[in-house]
Amino acid sequence: MDARQLEYFLAIVEHGGFSKAAAALHVAQPSLSQAMANLEADLGVALFHRVGRGVVLSEAGEELLEPSRRVLRDMAAVRDTAAALSGLHGGTVEVATMPSPGIEPLTTLIHRFAELHPAVTVSTHAAFTPDEVVSLVRSGACELGLLGSPNPVTVAGLDVLQVEDQPFVVVAAPDGPVRDDVTLRPEDLAGQKLIASRTGSLMRSIVDDITAGGRGTGIVTVVDHRTSILPLVLTGVGVAVLPSSWTRLARRCGAVVAPIEPTAHLHVAMVSLPAHLTPAARAFLALTTSLARQRTKGPAAARTRK
Q1: What residues contact residue 253 under an 8 Å CB cut-off, 6+ apart?
Q2: Which pTM does this prediction carry?
Q3: Are strands 303-305 and 48-51 parallel, antiparallel or unpaired?
Q4: What residues form DSSP beta bridges with 160?
Q5: Considering 42, 76, 147, 232, which has the largest number of Cβ atoms within 10 A of its Cβ?
């Protein structure tokens, strides 16, 4: 077994088949197939089941997936460590992120990181729940994960850095009844049409609490993609309740943003597997720690392992 075989194996999984993996790797498909045949022979198990013109992972293939990612990441860490002796001169940091933390603090983090380490690429992977972020980090698909939760985050086996708490705010089109930076109470939204996410999110629970009070407030549209919310607000479809991470972007686009009281908070945290961090990921985590200290305006943000 060698690293090239593991790289080929992961490429087949990620691209959904031999032909697409071969094209992505810029190798001939027969060479890729032979490498997998050799790996299966060395291991004594079949890693894929051939189904029509495609393949699916066997049980043995599923078991090999996470260790393969770890091996290749550890090898990358060795290369990056050598490069780090004279500074970070390349590489990629893989970060899983949920939508709202993906706006802020991720924008600030990438901006500062790019200034400090311009040769390193930050690659983000979309996740929509805390469990999805944790899964991407545990599996080795990403080194770091940025998530938001209704409560402070604790995750067994992972390091957790509490980054910041984001209160929810009301975002509305200009020239309407909502005034920028003027605190609202839920009853002040009487008669307003609300743009909401699907049931199950903290954002939706806040909207449901507002509409439950009556006063002519109702949901005008429900969206899956958070990126749809701001354009809908700006066209006058309705107002939205969003984490404060959206504030700067909303105002730059011409929307007004008002605090709402009382409100819940989105607890933003970064999770990681420290034993498998490359130097570039460690640098990104260190930058996040510094930002967390600034935003909590207190002693060093707590990093805990549960």
Answers
A1: 230, 234
A2: 0.68
A3: unpaired
A4: 271, 304
A5: 147
